[in-house]
Amino acid sequence: MEDNKRYESGIHVMEELFSEEVRNGMAGMKNISPDFWEMIVSFGFGDLYGRNTLSHAQREVITLTTLITQGAFDQLKVHLRAALNVGLSKEEIIELIMHCAGYVGFPKAVQAMGIAGEIFKETEVTK
Amino acid sequence: MEDNKRYESGIHVMEELFSEEVRNGMAGMKNISPDFWEMIVSFGFGDLYGRNTLSHAQREVITLTTLITQGAFDQLKVHLRAALNVGLSKEEIIELIMHCAGYVGFPKAVQAMGIAGEIFKETEVTK
Amino acid sequence: MEDNKRYESGIHVMEELFSEEVRNGMAGMKNISPDFWEMIVSFGFGDLYGRNTLSHAQREVITLTTLITQGAFDQLKVHLRAALNVGLSKEEIIELIMHCAGYVGFPKAVQAMGIAGEIFKETEVTK
Amino acid sequence: MEDNKRYESGIHVMEELFSEEVRNGMAGMKNISPDFWEMIVSFGFGDLYGRNTLSHAQREVITLTTLITQGAFDQLKVHLRAALNVGLSKEEIIELIMHCAGYVGFPKAVQAMGIAGEIFKETEVTK
Amino acid sequence: MEDNKRYESGIHVMEELFSEEVRNGMAGMKNISPDFWEMIVSFGFGDLYGRNTLSHAQREVITLTTLITQGAFDQLKVHLRAALNVGLSKEEIIELIMHCAGYVGFPKAVQAMGIAGEIFKETEVTK
Amino acid sequence: MEDNKRYESGIHVMEELFSEEVRNGMAGMKNISPDFWEMIVSFGFGDLYGRNTLSHAQREVITLTTLITQGAFDQLKVHLRAALNVGLSKEEIIELIMHCAGYVGFPKAVQAMGIAGEIFKETEVTK
């Protein structure tokens, strides 16, 4: 595959995961490093999310879990919205976080659940 | 629920996840701390895996992801076998690890893939 | 023990650790997931802090140390207040953070000490 | 070497790394724990940065990398400014963060790049 | 304090924490880097363990907790022996690890408990 | 750039970093997942190490630092050899690890230094 196609595939994935507003925010990265932006789109979304075998929803389960484990809570907000966009239910997300409590400890799970609560409220308001 | 039932529920889950050999190995914990053994069974398996909303296979996706992210590779071996037992395919596990490469970095993903390769080979032999 | 008693034991522990204001803040979790709230109280406080062998003050030494090591600084604030409530002195907390500097590195220790400074000031004002 | 000299050496290093404003902010630590402040200066800067074999710029490459890997983003801000002060270029810092993407995963690299963008903008304004 | 005294203080602390066999093993570091060996002794043991306010036993509680949280299991073995040497009981160590289960997750706690079991057995044999 | 070229660029970088023996070991990954092998070569080595602005030696400083911080000690062995291959001296590597002691804590630095000692001895023998 040419780099061109990898980038296009990544942009396509991002449209499925994120709202236009979120994508515009992300694209601010272009001003800091156009090369890094290209890498995020082509590799992070094109090469990884663009693959088969796992659905976008299954990939978000993996992404949410690793972000909670790493304590990467700013990124968690973005991917909680993506998870809802690709069809995970609130109940499944809550259950995922509870499962994490036993595996990464309560401090990170509690923080994740608090953030999930905010995102859930926000999505209700915009409905 | 009485503690008795939580423990029984945990034992039941463990029978679904692990072979008898693995369970016997785990039960060695009883000799070090019977209370901790009880907690692992009742909370770790009874309270968490025993819940609804997510299937055992979905829970193993979460467990594998957090173990890779933490670099907990000894535990990963046990849960790779459990993942296969509850119906995840080799292709899905490989795909999960590749997805992790972008989110936790290649060093841990490479190590996880090497371990997965060993477990896959082992399960072929025992067939 | 019945679940009922585990929950009651957890609530009792929380009254010893946290001010009413902090407990009310924590209870907001009920609105996001009543099951997770139940788990936090029954397991996190009832099953763990409710055990013998170690005092609440000794348990807070463990909790503070793991939170600093994980970089879980939001949770650290809550448990610094709890540590003071169950009898750890400011001098002991400062000493704990200095010890951590050698074991988890200065970046996390410096951040923890800054937060401890804020909590110490806050508790002086309320006196 | 006497402790006196270790402290003086540390203060000297800090003058090379940080602006007066940043150093004054750091010195607030004296009010929380004078002993910890002494340890930061004498050990963290005197004993470590004061050594030979690696330049200050090379040491900042190490420091930035470990801070990104740990997710210690508050400390990262301080050391991004120090890195620029001791001669690392923006291009080198961007390249370092991109390299980290493959080794610690994109979530932390993306967050680090966003912070670097802010620091770069800030240093342009003050020129 | 002169560096000489910091080193002597560190050696003195190490004699209280570790058996002669363990100390001889550690001293192999001198062959790789005499400067790093000096830093371990003077800073790691002299400056940190040599301070007041917390007892050696309390410091080992902190050290064990951070090692479990970091997954630094090779170092954990050494400090489990040290913890027993300075007066922590097996019951207290088991309780510490159980407390960690809730705060760092079961995978690391389970691994730590297994290692503690080995160390306990080993110390019984040498009695 | 076509994928073909990214892969070739990655293979070229790997020849500069690793001995033939190490590369053959790595290529075992092809048997587990040919796609992951392609990703490691094309992205991990082609896209990242193949870029300009930082030399291979500077990139190994970053790689060693993040591996020590993550506690990824199996990967550390491979990259310590690579670091020596691309021109870092033993003195620089020792200094890097000592610097890390202050930033990630002594446990991981001590373990890294022990491993470095083994690799240094091994390279002396093969001379």
Description:
With 127 residues, chain A is mainly alpha-helical. The first copy, chain A, has 2 domains: 1-53, no CATH class; 55-127, AhpD-like, CATH 1.20.1290.10. Helix content of chain A is 83%, strand content 0%. The first copy, chain A, is built from 8 helices and no strands. Chain A has helices spanning 3-17, 20-26, 29-32, 34-49, 56-70, 73-85, 90-104, 106-126. Chain A is globular. The termini of chain A are far apart. The mean pLDDT of chain A is 95. Chain B binds chain E through residues 28-29, 31-33, 35-36, 39-40, 44, 66-67, 70-72, 74-75, and chain E through 71, 94, 97-98, 101, 105-111, 113-114, 116-117, 120. Chains A, B, C, D, E, F: Pfam families: CMD. Chains A, B, C, D, E, F: InterPro entries: 4CMD/NDH-1_regulator, AhpD-like, CMD-like. Chains A, B, C, D, E, F: Residues 34-116 form the Carboxymuconolactone decarboxylase-like domain. Chains A, B, C, D, E, F: This is Carboxymuconolactone decarboxylase family protein.
